[in-house]
Design a protein that fits this description.
Elements (H helix, E strand, L loop, with lengths): L11 H4 L6 E5 L6 H12 L4 E5 L18 H12 L3 E5 L3 H9 L4 E4 L1 H4 L2 H10 L7 E4 L6 H13 L5 E5 L17 H9 L5 E3 L1 H5 L5 H10 L4 E5 L17 H10 L9 H41 L7 H17 L4 H28 L1
Parallel strand pairs: 1-2, 1-8, 2-3, 3-4, 4-5, 5-6, 6-7, 7-8
Helix pairs in contact: 2-3, 6-7, 12-14, 13-14
The structure holds phosphoenolpyruvate (PEP) and manganese (II) ion.
């Protein structure tokens, strides 16, 4: 996959500080002026928090549940700006939302996961911010579709927005336990590989869906070099009108932030030397791994030809289940995770069958 040439500004330009990680926090929904102000005042006392988030228009799965306080909540956010040094951020899903948010001097807009799935909505939103100098955070689409996520980023970029951050909030999967939305870390990693300068902010609240899961998700995000965290905070989480199980109190956020280990990308030269040495070992082992896979596939082809010549079916179930049993036992003895090894064996097996099927088809075409 080619790397994109999008020019995206670093997060530094958002707050005029080079804070790492950038912490965005606030309630899932603005519910009342008292709740918003209480949360903002407490968050303003946590030095790491730089941006106050609050949902004003809430995208709900079923109608009739709390759908947000609407425009009056924007006035409360203006008050947050006046009283604290926090920047404000809201979710927008239509041109009307954008207009209202801009009218009320919201500092940052974000696009929710349910909106990013729809390129029509994204195009409408991108057009509505054309010529406006405002940072935009783009959540991943609900479904694990990296192109859709990149497409949304490109549409805003084409509209002239240069301060863009992606927000990783996990993906809806049928079997996702223990998470509310499966993190599928490989997707934001690939996003970063394809758009190298793009800041990525992790949203552990919507990934976890449960308070207990927040610290490990947040730490993992930092270990994967994500640039910031968005965490939902509410003065009385259990009474929150939306997402009660995943919200924490401001003082719990403060503790969580203190517990995070911030590892720098590069350390001192001695550390860097050791790291380079270990990495070059990994490079060698990967080269060997590829050579071993090549040898294995050549044998698979040979067996495929032999089976074909002797009219034997490609899939020999008994042999395959013996292989799995034997390899798993070996792997477990040497400390490899069983699920991981099982998945790896399955991938190798699927590829072997694909190659042998090719051999069968090619021979029969001749
Ligand atoms: C939110 O941030 O409160 C929200 C609705 O998130 P998402 O779009 O990720 O579901
Ligand atoms: Mn929420």
């Amino acid at each position: 996959m080619v790397k994109s040439k999008l020019h995206i500004d670093p997060l530094k330009g958002w707050t005029n500080q080079s804070d790492f990680p950038l912490i965005i926090s606030g309630p899932c929904s603005a519910e009342s002026e008292i709740q918003v102000m209480e949360t903002a005042r407490k968050l303003a006392k946590i030095p790491e928090v730089k941006i106050f988030r609050a949902g004003i228009w809430k995208p709900r799965t079923r109608p009739g549940s709390f759908e947000g306080v609407g425009v009056k909540g924007l006035k409360w956010l203006q008050k947050v700006k006046q009283e604290t040094n926090l920047l404000t951020a809201v979710e927008v899903a239509s041109q009307k939302h954008v207009e209202e948010a801009l009218k009320h001097q919201v500092d940052i807009l974000w696009i929710g996961a349910r909106t990013v799935v729809n390129p029509f909505s994204i195009q409408e939103l991108a057009s509505s911010v054309e010529g406006v100098d405002i940072p935009i955070m783009i959540k991943n689409p609900v479904n694990p579709d990296l192109s859709l996520w990149i497409g949304a980023i490109e549409r805003f970029h084409m509209a002239g927005i240069k301060r863009i951050a992606a927000v990783h909030r996990g993906f809806y999967l049928f079997d996702k336990s223990p998470y509310r939305n499966a993190p599928m870390w490989e997707i934001p990693i690939e996003l970063k590989r394809q758009i190298p300068g793009l800041p990525i902010i992790c949203d552990p609240s919507h990934i976890g869906g449960e308070r207990e899961l927040l610290p490990e998700i947040a730490q993992k995000a930092l270990d994967l070099e994500m640039d910031g965290l968005m965490l939902e905070v509410h003065p009385n989480p259990d009474d929150a009108l939306t997402d009660p199980q995943q919200q924490i109190k401001p003082n719990e956020l403060s503790q969580l932030l203190k517990s995070l280990v911030i590892r720098r990308e590069t350390g001192n030269t001695e550390f860097q030397g050791k790291l380079d040495e270990l990495r070059s070992e990994i490079d060698k082992i990967d080269a060997e791994l590829i050579q071993i896979l090549t040898n294995r596939m050549q044998l698979v082809d040979e067996i495929g030809n032999y089976k074909k010549d002797n009219n034997i079916t490609i899939l020999q179930l008994k042999r395959w289940s013996n292989i799995v049993k034997d390899r798993l036992a070996r792997g477990v003895r040497s400390g490899i995770n069983k699920d991981f090894l099982q998945k790896l064996l399955e991938i190798v097996h699927t590829e072997s069958i694909r190659r042998q099927t090719d051999i069968y088809n090619k021979n029969s075409e001749e």
